[in-house]
Design goal:
Two copies of one chain form a homodimer. Chain A has a two-stranded antiparallel sheet with strand order 1-2. In chain A, α6 packs antiparallel against α11. Chain A has eleven helices and two strands; from the N terminus they run αααββαααααααα. Chain A has helices at about 10-20, 35-40, 45-60, 75-80, 85-90, 95-115, 120-135, 140-155, 160-170, 185-200, 205-225; strands at about 60-65, 70. Chain A is mainly α. The first copy, chain A, has two domains: about 10-80, Arc Repressor Mutant, subunit A; about 80-225, GntR ligand-binding domain-like (Four Helix Bundle (Hemerythrin (Met), subunit A), Up-down Bundle). Chain B binds a DNA duplex through α3.
DNA sequence: AGTGACTGAGTGGATGAGCCACTGAACCAG
DNA sequence: CTGGTTCAGTGGCTCATCCACTCAGTCACT
């Protein structure tokens, strides 16, 4: 089974603050109330509040200066891709934009993987593709599918592609339950994905690019019509 | 002048821990020593240590479970692009991989911007390009150059491209002093970048892609030869 | 034997009082 | 007007203490 969900006070406080910020209740550039006051307002200790602040600062949402205060960063302008998970959770319209980028980058990755993938990596791809067909539940199919894409990214030989892929998946996985359309039928999912793996396996760079683009376009369509 | 450098204990402790993790002194999957023991080892309070832990957990390097312990995540496999800045700082070999990806994605962005950029955005690009030529110091040229690329990302109409661009810049800007080669001559920098802005302004999608690729290739070459 | 409740050691989570360090503005002396 | 001083307000950090969770071992009961 799954491990997981513990909700500590800091977790809750962090989400609460994040929501307040993303919803614009604390505009970019504005200063938050002093820690002592804010902590009292939320009914927590200053220490606890600071833990939440620390995380949000690390995420790029806040910026604190000793002796001055804590201010909301202009994350829409300067923020990095690690904000995506929280942005997607906060506003589903981001999903479409994520998909568009995912499609372009997915095609790039398939192309590179076809050129650079090692024999070992191609074999791994085939094995992981098989796992998609064998997966028992739609959820498992979805996760198996993700693993194939991670392996594709690794096969580019460029670790930055792996990180980017993870970033995009991190944005997508938390809301994946709503996007399960393409994975209800393991056989069909396997059929859609297979051409990509085959083209990469054959070292067919143009073919891999086209197959990846087609795969991502199909999957995206099915996901979004389920969302409507 | 710049604002900046405060080094709090938590900052130092965080870097120290991060180094220890990235260098593999705490292998992925292994548990860190208990907080009380570790805090004593570093000569700080447990509270302070926990602040540092919080940041690293947010960054995806650690994973804490109540009653069990704190464990090092397999960030190389599962980490997101937000790790890039620390990875680059820790090992310069990442820079080359970042550049390769930057080149591919930069071409994508230019292509989209040519198709989708609004009149207003094209005008902004021209203005920002002008600022590159006018910049007084190499450092200013470099930052003006970055602003042009941010604007290009905005012109795609897809906010995810903006975030990705920021992520890649976040990886690059902390070490930018070592990569100033292309920006010592403002006039030359302007000359290299101009074709991209022009093609985007003209709505020439193929041309923009080619120009961006050429620009990024040139810049990258100059940077890396300065690096040896 | 097998089952299930109980217990205790070890872990992280949270608190609140207290002090230190920094910033900026107001003030004041030159 | 300039430059130093003061002070109120802010975040940084520590400490001592308690709470909550996990896990493995125990032990009585079946």
């Amino acid at each position: 089974m799954e491990a997981l969900p513990r909700e500590t006070i800091v977790d809750v406080l962090e989400s609460r603050l994040r929501e307040d910020i993303l919803a614009g209740r604390h505009p970019a550039g504005s200063y938050l109330p002093p820690e002592r006051q804010l902590a009292q307002g939320y009914g927590v200790t200053r220490t606890t509040l600071k833990h939440a602040f620390g995380r949000l600062a690390q995420a790029g949402l806040l910026e604190t200066r000793h002796g001055v205060g804590t201010r909301v960063r202009d994350f829409a302008r300067l923020g990095g891709a690690d904000l995506l998970p929280m942005l997607v959770r906060h506003d589903a319209r981001w999903v479409r934009e994520v998909f568009e980028v995912r499609r372009s980058i997915g095609a790039l990755i398939a192309e590179r993987a076809a050129v650079r993938g090692t024999v070992r990596q191609r074999a791994e791809l085939t094995a992981l593709l098989g796992a998609v067909r064998e997966a028992a539940s739609p959820d498992a199919v979805q996760l198996a599918d993700v693993e194939v894409h991670r392996a594709l990214a690794r096969a580019t030989g460029n670790r930055v592609y792996v990180l980017l892929t993870n970033t995009l998946f991190n944005a997508y996985l938390p809301v994946r339950a709503a996007l399960r359309g393409p994975f209800t039928d393991a056989e069909a999912a396997h059929r859609r994905l297979a051409p990509v793996v085959e083209a990469v396996g054959a070292g067919d760079c143009e073919g891999a690019k086209a197959a990846a683009d087609a795969y991502l376009r199909d999957t995206e369509r099915i996901m979004l019509e389920g969302l409507s």
